[in-house]
């Protein structure tokens, strides 16, 4: 009896074994399908690695440095009379992208400026690509838009530079070339600061009056830059002694207008130094208010000295560099009046302690948060710049 039962046992177990085999085969097939489906994703991740936030912050710093450097090297081109050192664009003479020996120093200076532009262009290209690979890129669309703004501005500069050469350094195109660099600095400064902040809402911790004073200061500072280009286009440093044309203005009149606008921005900057302390603004705002006054006073001293010494090229170069620093300081002061949550891994000294400022305001009864979503650069919470 037991023998018969034993003989029948394999037949009874056979369906179970078959079912187990079918299940295993199905699992293997499902695993193969899943692996095949995941394969493109794995390849994609391997091809485009995620960029760490600290690497992106470094890219924004390098980009900002190059944005300031290209202004100085561009000024050197004009002050040495090398604006047409490479008489064609994008080549530097017929049939060559490097300067010919007959162009001597002027060709080397202009060619060097173009090389700085090319290196800067590499960073302008890498930065938006890196922004697309940030771990929180979906929440940080502001970084993506600002990064692509740098790339678009750089391409515009390349085209405008070519137009400047082809128009024999017309003062209007030279001025536009400089002012576009100042617009790029706005983008670069905002991107540099945003990369060190989190994705939360913008908080303004000062009264509206102080925020508007900072905005007026930035507008007047921009006017000083515009008038400075008019003085440059009227003065002796045209960029080329033979072909370049000048504006037909009286140099004394435009220089006086430029000086008057500089006096106005000086008064506004001094007012900001006192205002940020009275309003108990953040330490960052107080630091940049001090820095702005220092740069403006230095600029005024250089400006008056160069005027009475006959506008020597060396002092003009310092004046151009000082104008760049003044513009950056004005922008940083404006941006320091608002803040976002601190990004992980960012030193605490780089970001304002919003809660402490709010508590201080409430304790003194002077002010509270003006607007939890207002941004001094006019950006929406999603990051798209609207003003």
Entry keywords:
single chain; two-stranded antiparallel ribbon; 10 helices; 69% helix; 1% strand; disordered N terminus
Describe the fold and architecture.
69% of the residues lie in helices and 1% in strands. With 387 residues, it is mainly α. Helix 5 (171-194) packs parallel to helix 9, helix 7 (251-278) packs antiparallel against helix 8 (283-308) and helix 8 runs antiparallel to helix 9 (313-335). It starts with a helix and ends in a 23-residue tail after the last helix.
Give a short overview.
By secondary structure, the chain is mainly alpha-helical. Helix content is 69%, strand content 1%.
Note the topology:
Blueprint: H1 2-47, H2 53-79, H3 104-131, H4 141-166, H5 171-194, E1 203-204, H6 208-234, H7 251-278, H8 283-308, H9 313-335, E2 338-339, H10 354-364
Antiparallel strand pairs: 1-2
Helix pairs in contact: 2-3, 2-5, 2-9, 3-4, 4-5, 5-6, 5-9, 6-7, 6-9, 7-8, 8-9
Q: Mean pLDDT score, rounded?
A: 76
Number of domains: 1
DSSP strand count: 2
* Poorly predicted runs: 1-20, 29-45, 348-387
Order of helices and strands: HHHHHEHHHHEH
What's the end-to-end separation, in Å? Answer: 95 Å
Structural class: mainly alpha
Radius of gyration: 30 Å
Record the strand order, biggest sheet. 1-2
SS summary, helix count? 10
Q: Name the helicity range.
A: 55-70%
Q: Report the biggest beta sheet as strand number plus sense, adding barrel if it closes.
A: 2 strands, antiparallel
């Amino acid at each position: 009896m037991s023998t018969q039962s034993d003989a029948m046992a394999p037949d009874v177990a056979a369906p179970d074994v078959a079912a187990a085999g079918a299940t295993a085969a199905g699992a293997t097939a499902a695993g193969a399908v899943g692996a095949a489906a995941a394969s493109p994703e794995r390849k994609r991740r391997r091809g485009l690695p995620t960029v760490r936030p600290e690497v992106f912050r470094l890219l924004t710093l390098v980009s900002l440095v190059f944005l300031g450097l290209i202004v100085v090297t561009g000024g050197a081109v004009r002050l040495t009379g090398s604006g047409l050192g490479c008489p064609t664009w994008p080549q530097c003479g017929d049939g060559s992208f490097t300067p010919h020996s007959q162009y001597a120093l002027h060709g080397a200076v202009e060619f060097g400026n173009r090389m700085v532009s090319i290196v800067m262009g590499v960073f302008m290209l890498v930065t938006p690509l890196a922004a697309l690979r940030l771990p929180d890129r979906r929440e940080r669309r502001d970084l993506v838009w600002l990064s692509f703004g740098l790339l678009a501005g750089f391409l515009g500069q390349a085209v405008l530079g070519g137009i400047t050469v082809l128009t024999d350094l017309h003062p209007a195109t030279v001025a536009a070339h400089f002012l576009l660099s100042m617009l790029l600095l706005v983008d670069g400064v905002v991107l540099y600061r945003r990369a060190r902040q989190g994705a939360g809402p913008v908080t303004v911790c000062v009264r509206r009056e102080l925020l508007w004073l900072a905005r007026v200061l930035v507008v007047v500072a921009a006017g000083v830059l515009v008038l400075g280009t008019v003085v440059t286009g009227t003065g002796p440093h045209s960029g080329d002694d033979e072909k370049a044309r000048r504006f037909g203005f009286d140099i004394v009149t435009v220089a006086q207008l430029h000086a008057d606008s500089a006096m106005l921005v000086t008064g506004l900057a001094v007012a900001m130094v006192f205002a940020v302390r009275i309003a108990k603004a953040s330490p960052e705002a107080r630091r940049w208010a001090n820095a702005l006054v220092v740069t403006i006073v230095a600029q005024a001293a250089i400006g008056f000295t160069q005027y009475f010494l006959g506008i020597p090229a060396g002092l003009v170069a310092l004046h151009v560099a000082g104008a760049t620093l003044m513009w950056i300081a004005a922008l940083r002061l404006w941006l320091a009046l608002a803040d976002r949550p601190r990004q992980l891994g960012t030193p605490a000294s780089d970001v304002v302690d919003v809660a402490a400022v709010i508590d201080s305001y409430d304790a003194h009864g002077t002010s509270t948060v003006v607007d939890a979503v207002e941004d001094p650069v006019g950006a929406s919470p999603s990051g798209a710049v609207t003003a």
